[in-house]
Structure formats: structure tokens, C-alpha cells
Write a structure and sequence with these properties.
The protein is an alpha/beta fold. It has two domains: about 325 residues, TIM Barrel, CATH 3.20.20; about 130 residues, no CATH class. It contains 17 helices and 23 strands. A hairpin with a 2-residue loop joins strand 20 and strand 21. It is globular, with a radius of gyration of 24 Å. Bound molecules: ligand MZP. The site of ligand MZP has 23 residues, from strand 19 and helix 13.
Length: about 500
């Protein structure tokens, strides 16, 4: 056996030591632009991102709603692959066809128009939101704002869904889209001081209809409703079994980039998949691969044709792979090792293959550490699962709101393809858990706060872009005693003190 001379470490064991910051080093001057796919020295990558964040290929994280919200902020979602080819392709298509909304005075819409008819109109126009005003201008008298969202009900009956639906509704009201009219919906909502009406359409999908009473507060949103012609970049997860059918469907739907979703990527299955895709669909189809945790694994996937390489085994917040199988490596050590090999590969071949650090990012500063250690971008599951835009239910437990979050290797997701080693087509044992995470609000607000911390730390390190950060960062391992020193200590927090009074 080979014994590594050093223990493997994770992000919480490292800190950045500040470097010189010039007067130009202010957060407003920091660029977080980063490559997503490989490129040759002197050339530009085919796809770049404005922020180094992608959302995890997970049922509880990346659907079309998440993808649109993240793309608006400059990142990319990878739509989860543990669903039918048709469903995944439909989600990709919805992101690509997404137009945020429009204002209409459509004379065909009256208070007697049914919600089903309005949803059909939204579908036809390709918009997800529509404001109906009397004169068709954003400032005109409002008849209603209608937003449609798709919810998959495949795993739960409607009643079970209702039971777990502990959103701020005073009382859960289901309306039938075919028979409820705009005026009836407005009555239901306004009378009961609710601002949402869960609505089921003919195909058993749950749609949200949102009506806002005071449109004048939302004039700006109204204007934003017309921000047309933009197409967002979206990624999609694939597996090493059904790629011959899944890949063409995803490409047809408009996927910009694919990623083989596997818990352990140093395998012949990945080489076969990469070769098949590049031979059948051309080198222009971009495919990431992984996950690996050492230089050897990186080299294997680089030579197999991966367009980016994902790092991380066993570090995900919902992951029990290390406990069940005893494989993995501390995420920081794995990342440092892989990034070193990426740089070596670049020197040898002139080809730069971006590295994605996947899983185990708990605090915002972990993201800066990962970027300083060499990651080109970060994949996050738990982080995004906490937001309004994640596909899971928000539940209230003991007065606090949580969102559901489950691993792809849990019995709930049953993503056996992710753990497939060529055996029976099933999940033999669980490698993930089903959990709750504290609800955190909107993606936009949270991402903005996180990135302002990242930019600020980069300035402390004298770095105005990610390449400079990798170059200039000074990282130190910390002792367990100094980790205690890093939090507030030896004081009584005022809010604790007050609550005792
Ligand atoms: P985190 O951001 O929640 O810490 O980790 C998310 C990552 O965990 C995913 O991108 C994926 O690589 C990994 N994952 C997803 N499901 C499981 C599991 O069930 C898992 N074990 O480890």
C-alpha cells in the first residue's frame, strides 16, 4: 500500500495571511470572471462565468428556477440528471427559452378569464411572469401579476405535498386552474390576506400564482418584466449509462455544457463516456468530468478529454461516503494536489483545464480559500438549497423555517447512476442523507453578500482577479487552539445575556 506522508486537511484548517494591498485594491475593482471549460494558451475559453459559482447536480438544488436565478447573477446551474431524459431536457429548454415577463393589456384577459387560460398564454409567449394592467403600461391600473412555476409531484401525492407545505400560507387552498377565474383567485387571496395561491393544472403540476395588491410598489419590477432577447447559459448532468440517448436530447434542448455526475470519476466508464460524446457530437460539446481527489485522477480525466475536472469525494454536507466506504480525502488537500497537477499539465501541453472544487464549502470564507488554493470555480449544494429558488419545500419546525435537502445517494434520490460501478442498476446502499437546512431567503441577496466577502478578502491579499489571488495568496494551516481564537471568545454575547434577564 502507498501511505501519504501528510494527513489530508480541509478548509476549516486554513487561513489566508494578508498581503500588501495598493490603493487600487478596492472591492469595486475586483473581477471574479473565470473560465468554465478548457482552452489553449493564448486563446479565450468558449464559456466563462462572471462569478465562480455553480449549483450542484442535485434534485434538491438545480432545477430551471435555480438555473435562471443563478444565471442572472453570473453563475451556472447544472440541471440534475437523476430524472427522465425528457424531464431534464424540458428543464434545460425552459431555461433557454426563459423570458422573464411582460406587461400586457391583452383585451382577451378579463376578470372572468380562467387561470388555466392565463397559464396557457404564458406558455405560448415563453414568459414566466405577466402583469396585466388596464392600459398595458407598467404604471397602469393592475388587474393581476401572474407567475408560473413548475413543481414535480412525482414522489409525493398531492395530499402528502399539502401536509409538508408549511409555507406562510394561513391555510392551504388548492384551486383548479380550469375553473378558477382571475377574479375568484383575487378574492381568495385578498380576502384571506394571502399573497399566493397554490394551483394545480391539468398535468398535475403545481403552479404558483402570485398576485400583488399594490402594484405601485413594484413599478420597477414592472419595468424589469420587459428585459427580452437574453438567453441564459445552463449546464446539465449526465451519467455513464444512458449518454447515447441523454446527450443528444440535452443538446437539442440547448444545454451549453454537460458534466458527468459521479461520486468517483477515476474510472474507465468516464473515459468511454467522454470519448463517445466527443466522437459523436464533436469537440465543441463541452463535458466536465469527475470527481477525483488526486493528481493521478486529474491526469487520467485530462487525457480522456475532460473540459473541466471536478474535485471532491466524501466532503459534501449530505455525504456519508467516507463513513460507509472509507474512501475520500480532505477537500483542501485534494484540491491543492489536483490544482498543482492542472498547472503542470498546462506547462507541458499549453492546455488549461479548469478545476471545480465540489462540496464541503461551509462558510463564505471557505470559498475564498478554495479559490486561493487554485479552484477556478466552486460547486455548491447545501449553500443553494437554502434559498427560495431551490426546488424543495420550505417547512416550519418549532417556529423556524427550513428547506429540505437530500443527497443524490440517499434513498430519497436513488441516483444509482452516480454510484454505478457497472453492476445491477440499483442503489445497493445509501451514501447520502435526507436533511433540513435553515431557510435563508433569496439567492440574489445571499450571493451578493457572499461575494462581497470574497472580494474584500481578495483585496486583503492584494488580488484584483482570481489568477492574482492564486498567485499572491499566502495560506497557513492553523492549530486547533488558534481556531478557538478565531471566533468570539471570553466574552458573554449581549443577546445571550439579555435573553437570560
Ligand atoms: P455540499 O455543497 O452540500 O457540501 O456538497 C454538494 C456535493 O455533494 C454535490 O455537488 C455532490 O458532489 C455531492 N453529493 C451529492 N449527493 C451526495 C450523496 O448523497 C453527495 N452522498 O455526496
Amino acid at each position: 500500500a502507498y501511505f501519504y506522508p501528510e494527513p489530508s486537511h480541509t478548509f476549516g484548517e486554513y487561513l489566508l495571511v494578508p498581503g500588501y494591498s495598493s490603493d487600487k485594491c478596492i472591492p469595486a475593482n475586483v473581477s471574479l470572471k473565470t473560465p468554465l471549460v478548457k482552452f489553449k494558451k493564448g486563446e479565450e475559453p468558449k464559456i466563462t462565468m462572471n462569478i465562480p459559482m455553480v449549483s450542484a447536480i442535485m434534485q434538491a438544488v438545480s432545477n430551471d428556477t435555480m438555473a435562471i436565478a443563478l444565471a442572472k447573477e453570473g453563475g451556472i446551474s447544472f440541471i440534475y440528471g437523476s430524472q427522465s431524459i425528457e424531464e431534464e431536457a424540458a428543464m434545460v429548454a425552459r431555461v433557454k427559452n426563459y423570458k422573464s415577463g411582460f406587461v400586457t393589456s391583452d383585451s382577451n384577459i378579463t376578470p372572468e378569464t380562467t387561470l388555466g387560460e392565463i397559464l396557457a398564454l404564458l406558455e405560448k409567449t415563453g414568459h414566466s411572469t405577466m402583469a396585466v394592467t388596464e392600459d398595458g403600461t407598467p404604471t397602469g391600473k393592475l388587474l393581476g401579476i401572474v407567475t408560473s412555476r413548475d413543481y414535480r409531484l412525482s414522489r409525493m401525492s398531492l395530499d402528502e405535498k399539502a401536509g409538508s407545505f408549511m409555507t406562510p400560507f394561513e391555510k392551504l387552498v388548492y384551486a383548479d386552474a380550469e375553473t378558477t377565474t382571475l377574479s375568484m383567485a383575487n378574492d381568495i387571496i385578498w380576502d384571506k390576506k394571502l399573497n399566493m395561491l397554490p394551483l394545480v393544472d391539468k398535468e398535475q403540476r403545481l403552479r404558483y400564482m402570485v398576485f400583488r395588491k399594490d402594484y405601485t410598489d413594484n413599478k420597477e419590477n414592472g419595468n424589469e418584466l420587459i428585459d427580452e432577447g437574453k438567453r441564459y447559459v445552463v449546464g446539465a448532468g449526465i451519467n455513464t449509462r444512458d449518454y447515447a440517448d441523454r446527450v443528444p436530447a440535452l443538446l437539442k434542448a440547448g444545454a451549453d455544457v454537460l458534466c458527468i455526475d459521479s461520486s468517483e470519476g477515476f474510472s474507465e466508464w468516464q473515459r468511454i463516456t467522454l470519448r463517445y460524446i466527443h466522437e459523436h457530437f464533436g469537440e465543441d460539446v463541452k463535458v466536465g468530468a469527475g470527481n477525483v481527489v488526486d493528481a493521478e485522477g486529474f491526469r487520467f480525466l485530462a487525457e480522456a478529454g475532460a473540459d473541466f475536472v471536478k474535485v471532491g469525494i466524501g466532503g459534501g454536507s449530505i455525504c456519508i461516503t467516507r463513513e460507509t466506504k472509507g474512501i475520500g480525502r480532505g477537500q483542501a488537500t485534494a484540491l491543492i494536489d489536483v490544482c498543482r497537477e492542472r498547472d503542470k499539465y498546462f506547462e507541458e501541453t499549453g492546455i488549461y483545464i479548469p478545476v471545480c472544487s465540489d462540496g464541503g464549502l461551509v462558510h463564505d470564507y471557505h470559498m475564498t480559500l478554495a479559490l486561493a488554493m487554485g479552484a477556478d470555480f466552486l460547486m455548491l449544494g447545501r449553500y443553494f438549497s437554502r434559498f427560495d429558488e431551490s426546488p424543495t419545500d420550505k417547512v416550519k419546525i418549532n417556529g423556524t423555517y427550513y428547506k429540505e435537502y437530500w443527497g443524490e445517494g440517499s434513498n430519497r434520490a436513488r441516483n444509482w447512476q452516480r454510484y454505478d460501478l457497472g453492476g445491477a442498476k440499483k442503489l445497493s446502499f445509501e451514501e447520502g442523507v435526507d436533511s433540513y437546512v435553515p431557510y435563508a431567503g433569496s439567492l440574489k441577496d445571499n450571493v451578493n453578500i457572499t461575494l462581497s466577502k470574497v472580494r474584500s478578502t481578495m483585496c486583503n491579499c492584494g488580488a484584483l482577479n482570481l489568477a492574482e489571488l492564486r498567485d499572491k495568496a499566502k495560506l497557513t494551516l492553523v492549530s486547533s487552539t488558534s481556531i478557538v481564537e478565531g471566533g468570539s471568545h471570553d466574552v458573554i454575547l449581549r443577546n445571550k445575556f439579555n435573553s437570560r434577564e
